[in-house]
Specification:
Layout (H helix, E strand, L loop, with lengths): L14 E4 L9 H14 L6 H6 L5 H10 L6 H15 L10 H11 L3 E4 L4 H8 L6 E5 L12 H10 L6 E5 L2 H9 L4 E3 L12 E3 L8 H6 L5
Parallel strand pairs: 1-2, 1-4, 2-3, 4-5, 5-6
Helix pairs in contact: 1-4, 3-4
């Protein structure tokens, strides 16, 4: 005899979709250093307030801000230069944040696929995905979409590339921009601590630390199969 619906175990996520900077890896300081260096080379400045103002936004938006302040060059040129700076700093072992490697191992053992969904650049995100290819099977960056975060397009595209229902996915984010994107795509969102607080809202599940994100937590956010 079948059990009651409430007796059924929570289903596995169809996929887990991760933001990149500040969620999977500690790259926000690297972007800050890169932006200061590139701005200085092109005749302008970059400050901590600019880091916070552009958190979760696309790299071309940072490039445009530099140009508005009188930097020489183009959006495309400055964007590429920023990407090269950060990619060069990420050579070697991937600097996964505490708890992330353990979570990726759990997902691999359970056969749950994942993707990196980011407003950063492909050249940077692919280096991180290569650190866990058994899970991080796709990368969707701002270069892949017409409408980057906070629009839902990046998360919807990632689910489509993995061949899964967005409503059966769980997203992991650290910024208001990214959380809004994933929530608009119709998936529950785990929000880890970031440089800019995320306001509690329906569909967002705020945790105290990256190490709080486990497969059991992700399963609990989905209805029973």
């Amino acid at each position: 005899m079948a059990g009651h619906p409430e007796d059924r175990a929570p289903a596995l996520p169809a996929a887990v979709l991760f933001d990149h900077d500040g969620t999977l890896v500690d790259t926000e300081p690297l972007w800050a250093v890169a932006k200061r260096a590139v701005a200085a080379r092109h005749g302008t400045t970059w400050h901590e307030a600019d880091d916070l103002a552009t958190l979760g936004r696309t790299v071309p938006e940072s490039a445009r801000l530099m140009l508005e302040r009188g930097a020489d060059g183009t959006v495309e040129g400055l964007t590429a230069e920023l990407g090269r700076e950060v990619a060069a700093a990420l050579t070697g072992e991937v600097p996964f944040l505490p708890g992330v490697r353990a979570l990726l191992d759990e997902l691999a053992a359970a056969g749950v696929p994942g993707a990196v969904v980011t407003n950063a650049l492909t050249v940077v995100a692919r280096g991180t995905a290569a650190g866990a290819p058994e899970v991080l099977r796709e990368v969707v960056s701002q270069e892949d979409v017409e409408h980057p975060k906070p629009h839902p397009e990046p998360y919807l595209l990632a689910a489509r590339r993995l061949g899964v229902d967005p409503a059966r996915c769980v997203a992991v984010e650290d910024s208001p921009t990214g959380a809004a994107s994933a929530a608009a795509a119709g998936m529950p969102v785990v929000v880890v601590p970031g440089d800019v607080p995320v306001t509690p809202a329906p569909g967002l599940h705020l945790v105290d630390a990256h190490t709080d994100v486990t497969l059991d937590l992700l399963r609990s956010l989905l209805p029973p199969a």
